[in-house]
From TrEMBL:
Residues 273-284 have a biased composition (Polar residues). Residues 285-303 have a biased composition (Gly residues). Residues 271-310 are annotated as: Disordered. InterPro entries: DUF3500. This is DUF3500 domain-containing protein. It comes from the Bacteria. It comes from Arthrobacter jinronghuae.
Length: 310
């Protein structure tokens, strides 16, 4: 398996009934919108496997793993991942909470036709929300935004979540702040309404200290240019969205498989990666920090640790 050895069961090794049950777990974890996005990501990888020149063996391969025993009273984790997807969902029955940090969403290509002849755009919602925020800004705000430092802080990196230069939440109007929260919700709002509302409130509370940076195109037009990259870095949220300027051997005639059409993103919660499981943070090479008596930062009950995300 290229890049990472994944934990758990490969869906390709399951019976049709077992595969349906595994996908039902994923569907139960996610909102309808998030499940559609994830399904589109998976479909894109399978499209590349069938139509591109790529020899990447991980395309079309998806794994599901549980860490800890599923329970409605304690904490456990469901990990689901493949080539352009890495979901870490920690569920804690004691607090009725779900966290999705860190999670990786990627796409290649950005537009493709599925087996039923339908056009699929897995990241159209993200792009739409990103440009709704960008277009709401004044020329001066846009200049500050695009002069900032776009960053990428993946699990395993030595990362102190330094926000760098850019436009801050304190520079935004109330309406612009809501558009920024709508954009971050593509990652922080992947679960049920209660979890999404809690995440949004937490991010909003420190939005004035959050820094946003942007590079690349300023109009949502995938027929020109090389796409966009941006990062959103605050005390309670970290999102990085980066256009990949290369097809990684996944060329398809007439289909964009780089720039606009090849994107990697990461979502992290600087206060709550892996639900503050020290075991999982250590396994993924994260410094993590510690809370009381060497426990998770800020306390918390960690599930049994597992290997790192995608």
């Amino acid at each position: 398996m290229t890049f990472v050895q994944r934990a758990g069961l490969n869906l390709a090794d399951l019976t049709d009934e077992q595969k349906t049950a595994a996908l039902a777990v994923l569907q139960a974890l996610l909102s309808d919108e998030a499940y559609d996005t994830v399904s589109g990501i998976m479909g894109g990888d399978e499209y590349l496997q069938q139509n591109s020149s790529s020899t990447e063996q991980s395309l079309g391969q998806y794994y599901i793993a549980f860490f800890g025993d599923p329970s409605d009273t304690g904490a456990f984790e469901v990990q689901f991942g493949g080539h352009h997807l890495g979901i870490n969902a920690t569920l804690d029955g004691a607090t009725d909470a779900i966290t999705f940090a860190p999670t990786h969403l990627g796409v290649q290509p950005a537009v493709y036709t599925d087996a039923d002849g339908n056009e699929v755009r897995p990241f159209d919602g993200i792009y739409t929300d990103a440009f709704a925020f960008f277009d709401s800004l004044t020329g001066e705000q846009q200049a500050t935004l695009t002069s900032g430092d776009v960053s990428m802080c993946a699990p395993g990196d030595a990362c102190d979540f330094d926000a760098g230069a850019g436009l801050t939440g304190a520079d935004l109007t109330d309406a612009q702040k809501q558009l920024l929260l709508d954009l971050t919700a593509n990652w922080s709002g992947m679960a049920d309404e209660q979890t999404t509302a809690g995440s949004r409130a937490k991010i909003e509370a420190t939005l004035d200290d959050t820094v946003i940076a942007w590079s690349g195109e300023t109009t949502y037009d995938m027929s020109s240019g090389d796409g966009i990259s941006f990062s959103i870095s605050g005390p309670n949220v970290y999102v990085a969205f980066q256009a990949q300027q290369g097809s990684a051997g996944a060329d398809v005639d007439g289909v964009s498989t780089s720039g606009w059409g090849h994107v990697h993103t990461i979502y992290r919660d600087p206060t709550n990666d892996y639900a503050n499981s020290v075991t999982q943070q250590t396994a993924s090479g994260m410094g993590g920090g510690s809370g009381p008596a060497g426990g998770p930062p800020g306390g918390g009950t960690p599930p049994n640790g597992g290997p790192p995300s995608n």
